[in-house]
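Let's study a protein:

===
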Amino acid sequence: MTTTLKLSQLRLSPLNVRKVEPTGIEALADDIHAHGLIQNLGVYEDAGKFWVFAGGRRFRALDLLKKRKVVTAAFPVPVIIKDKAEAIELSLVENTQRENMHPADAVTAFAQLRDEGGMSAEDIAARFGYSTGHVAKLLRLGSLAPALLEAFAADTIGMEAAQALTMSEDHAAQIEAFERCGNSPAAIRRILTIEKVRTDASAFCFVGLDAYEAAGGTITRDLFGETGYADDPVLLDELVAAKLDGIRAGFEAEGWKIVEVAAEAPHDIYSRGYLRPETREASDEEAAQLTALDAEIEALEAEGSEDSEDAAALFEQRDAITEGFEAFTDAQRANGGVCAYIGYKGDLVLRHWTVYVERPTAKVEETGPYAASMIERLTAIRTMALQQEVAAQPALALDILLDSMTAQLLHSLHSYNLAADIHPTVTRHTVEQDMLDGSRLADLSAQLVERFADIPTDGRFEAIRAMDEADKMQLLAALVATSINGTIFNHGGIGARQATADKYADAAGLDLRQHWTPGQTFFDRLKKASLLAILADECGEDAAENCAKMKKGDLAVAVNERLPVGWLPEPARRFTPLCEQTTDEGEMSKVA
């Protein structure tokens, strides 16, 4: 219905989807004063008042003219009156047809259409010409805490950070993540999914979505990314272990002398050599089948149908027969090893080798609060500290060099069993930078390059010959130190290499606390059960039980604050543990 109302009867509607403050009001007021109001305002009636839902800028311009006393409160304003439900949709139509509408306004409008208008994402998409996916994403942004949505509208939070915050529907968790990570989408996603596993991770691909969901696992979808997150990493670990156990049992039944299965490739996998299967001749029956298949394939090729589905099926049948010609013999399996591990894309990778000398190692058990991956990080940090100590003690570096070369040249030991793997080889570390923040540790190789940058490539030998004895010894110490590696690799086992590294650490007088102490990042990376186990061990069972209901992020902060100064996680204290770690899973589960 079209009519006129007094300016004093009008109010700006809270339903107007455009919340971002408009600009150019003064210029619009001057234009209305000069030419009059040539377009009706859209209003609806509620509680005896008329609310402007379309034409908010014109209403503000009229209000400015009233303040300038150019018009009075009784100024007649042409309006079109609609009901409240229709007002939401018309407000969105008007604003989506205008430029520079802030995404936060669309988020609010779509949420109103869904909650008050009863429209689905498909309905909204069809009505306004958007894709359903676009509408679904904006509706997901509507799950932000009100304070964060306001900050988004004010551009305090960027679009990518806002999208990352929707990984959790818990408003308190969203606000905490934003306060801790600021406008960093990557950091926000890491905080909100720290106890979850990406669905493109190798372990998840190995198990598969169907098996994970069949076991009761759930997924958090990331509408703004290409992946999702498995909510139950414990269940995923159990499924991985069960599948690997089945693979292990199959190889053991085949009679292999050594069978290893692991979630990741053992660190020495490429030093084991290869064992190739033997090839046998086709049986009479197999030869006849191959002859028949070849004849059919030749007939299709003659017809020009070599790329047809029929031809592909024939080739598959032929491959299935010929693949059976290659197999490991009983003798090969009786004196051979097989290692099965999960590849980068979740596929099962196999490596076969002939067992010449068995190298006994102590398997790294994921007992106590530290997973094998965390043990690798901590022992890598200890390795970095040992390198720093050896680099500062040339006399000790000379002893280590002589020890390593004597072991290899006089005692015929393999270099991979020695802590100083002097080929030479530069030890690479896989410790994230945020695990080292606040420490004295740095990449020794980079320091070495900087310290001896004046040694030329051409004329290197002459330059070294001309160095004084002290510089030579410092160079020797740094070069030897870069080769030291006591890291316990994920699923790699503890053996002679780590034992030798401990001897070197004792000789160097290594005190890791002088180089590194665990920061908040370390505790953030631990699972809740691990945090509670550490707290119970260091502060008592009562302290752990009192904190058992805390959120994981809060618990990580609390544990960090409660542990004594100078505390080190057990795997960082030595490369070879003096005593076995606690294996009482019942105690862990009691406080988890």
The radius of gyration is 35 Å. The chain has 27 helices and 13 strands. Residues 233-254 form the longest helix (22 residues).
